[in-house]
Amino acid sequence: MIFQKYKESLLKLAFFLMFILLLFPSNIKPLVIGFFAVIVINFIYFERLKFDVKYFIINGAIYLLLILSLIYTDDIAYSFKKFESMASLLIFPFLFSFLSRFPLKIYKNIDRFLFYFILSVALLNITFFLMIWLGEEAAFKNVIKHYVFLIDNNILNNYNIHPIYMSIDVCLAIIFCMYLITNKTSAKFTSLLILILGVLFFFLFILSKKGPIISLALVTVVYFFIKTEMKYKIFFLLSMVVFFFVIFSSQTSKDHFYEILNVKDIRKGEITSSNIRYTIYKCSFDLFKKEPLLGYGVGDANNELIKSYKDISSKLFYDRYNSHNQYLSFLLRIGLIGLILILASFFFLFSKGIKNSNYLFLMVFSFYLLEMFTENILERQDGVIFYSFFVSLLQVYNKSKIET
């Protein structure tokens, strides 16, 4: 059969397309994921791979618990919309639960695939930047100033992306760069990675999103001072000093970070991103206290949160802000019981990563866990696809390394 003959090549192509998924327009991305799923399912069939139930339950825990909340939620239509946008939380754990015990040949080329992702992030940002600069004939400093707003306004059809999620992708690319640099790559490849790293830091600076920057800093500090040699620690320290010097030399960026030190309810202070989050968190906690054990269900939680804004802030109410904290979202949707079960699955994955010295997985997973404190990253396709794909893949990849 044709697939039997070319199964390794097709699987390699499927993984390649997933790693460069950012380069596809939003209406094509589901087709790429569908192609990946079809190829993997065929591979599973021809290799007669067995299903790893434990792997699936632990990695699919979030989605499975949300499904259970259908029992007590009222807004079924909205529930299924959420299930559709969060489908990656089920698809990738299901597919990789068959691959978890099979040493795929493509894992030998994982560094190359990571580089493809790095390139895709850099190329997409460079393309956006040049289109704004040259297409609009705008001054360079104005492009830097307004880049964060313009990338979410259809520069290209079906390519708009929220700046928070672009920042997250840039941070992932930086993590992959640092991992590759510290893992005995050639001098030429290291030089290329350092050059790309400079480009990525430039875009992280002009996006200037506090949450991803702080999460990245915390993760890389721990990695570099536990894992790497002294020369890399010095390189990292200098890079971080230069980056934060540049950040705080910009008045706009400096103001973004300083607002954290003066957080207030938006009824008493300015309408800043930090004050908005503070007010949302207060509303979320007040709502949680009314249904602490099981929450309001996947369909009703956000509606209840929006209702609670009505007497507090017209901006929050009419703009329909979500909880801006994934853990709070879990509390509102599936209650304390659901959150505890999810945290238990996170703890299992984290402890397993430590046991296996799976540094790449630990960096990526820790970054996402930190980022969940400021964003509902698992409830938008821009965030959940790469979370589920990388967290599922990097567990399997490390296991394969150990076994071979």
Automatic annotation (TrEMBL):
A GO molecular function for this record? ligase activity
Question: Which UniProt keywords are given for this protein, alphabetically ordered?
Answer: Ligase, Membrane, Transmembrane, Transmembrane helix
Q: Where in the cell is it found?
A: Membrane
Q: Which domain of life is it from?
A: Bacteria
Q: Start and end of every O-antigen ligase-related domain?
A: 197-343
How is it placed in the membrane, per its record?
Multi-pass membrane protein
Q: Which GO terms describe its cellular component?
A: membrane
Q: Which residues cross the membrane?
A: 31-46, 53-73, 85-102, 114-134, 164-182, 189-207, 213-228, 235-252, 330-350, 359-378
Pfam families, per database record: Wzy_C (PF04932)
Q: What is this protein called?
A: O-antigen ligase domain-containing protein
Species: Flavivirga rizhaonensis
